[in-house]
Amino acid sequence: MEIPVEIRSIADEFGLGGVILMGRNVGEPEQVAELCHSAAQLTPDLPPWVSIDQEGGRVARLKEPFTTWPVMATLGRSQDVSLAQRFARALAAELRAVGISLDYAPILDIHTNPANPVIGDRALAERADDVAELGAAIIRALQEERVAACGKHFPGHGDTSVDSHLELPLVEHPPDRLRAVEFVPFRAAIAADVATMMTAHVLVPSLDEQRPATLSRRVITDVLRNELRYEGVVLSDDLEMQAIAARWTVAEAAVLAVQAGCDGVLVCGGNYGDQAAALEALIHAVEDERVPRARVEEALRRQARAKERYLSSRLSARPSSPSALRQVIGSEAHRAIAEEMARFA
User: Fold this and answer.
1) DSSP sequence for 196-214
2) Which helix (H) or strand (E) holds 309?
3) Which residue ranges make up each domain of the chain?
């Protein structure tokens, strides 16, 4: 697959902060590498992120011959920080080989609710301190290998009983409980200098009775920015998920998310009309001062700072040769790490 003409048109007309690869975009490693190289050239003045959800387990867009990683709960059961680091370094090597610069991992949600239909064994562990230690180790290892990490989903999606892809989950904990449990892994991620954070499409009435976290200034600006002192890039989860889309259009949600403090929004479904409409809505919101120009400039500064760190050496790099790719992707050493993790399944 090549870059769709519609995406090229959006990049030419508006600029583009990044692209995300979904399962529909992914084939053999050589195809992924060519696609990522093309994507990285879309906006050369401020290169776009080339991003993906590659957690391991059931959320993994890259299939064999890429290494098949077990669920992240295996790392929690192992209690082995070194194993988590080796996993993250191997994962980063495969992502970097094909030109992916941002991975939406690790999950920092805590598996406190066995009935949770969307997090479950994607979570690293059931205890906040374990998630914090393992999550910070993964972040540091990924980023030392020049792949930007993303802590998700703030302010915590672990203790929910519905899937935000389908409806809006409710988190009923008071602020003291959130600070003592749910926020612990996010504080550790901030201490580890995580490049990006992703918001959760959850309603937390103790923080904001009206707006889901993704669209809430109280959650993103007051808590994540001002209380927890996070200075990196904040990204929304996919605005086409029903937790948001059942009430707001993509264009409306994009404006509300940026107003709330997001520095970028994800629109992942492949509807180019919705993607263009979101960008047009943001332009109009700045023009009529619903989004202050200073808010946009702040978001762009954060994006530029992170991109300088992770993308500055990538723009002119050609894709690796097929033989070089195959030496990294699904290598014997990486499969051995996956097998070691799988012992704790």
Assistant:
1) EEEE---B-TTT-SSS-GG
2) helix 293-311
3) 13-162+172-314
Level-2 CATH architecture, domain 13-162+172-314: Alpha-Beta Barrel (3.20)
Q: What integer is the mean pLDDT of 289-318? A: 89
Residue 94 CA from chain centroid, whole number: 17
Whole-prediction pTM:
0.96
Whether 201 is catalytic: no
15-49 pLDDT, tens digit per residue, is 999 999 999 999 999 999 999 999 999 988 889 99
Nearest Cα neighbor of 102 from 264, 272, 295 is: 264
Residue in 163, 165, 193, 274 annotated catalytic: 165
Whether 111 is catalytic: no
Question: Which runs of E-coded beta strand occur in 85-124?
Answer: 102-103
Q: Among the options 53, 130, 159, 237, which is catalytic? A: 237
Q: Let me know: does 58 contact 304? Beta carbons within 8 Å.
A: no
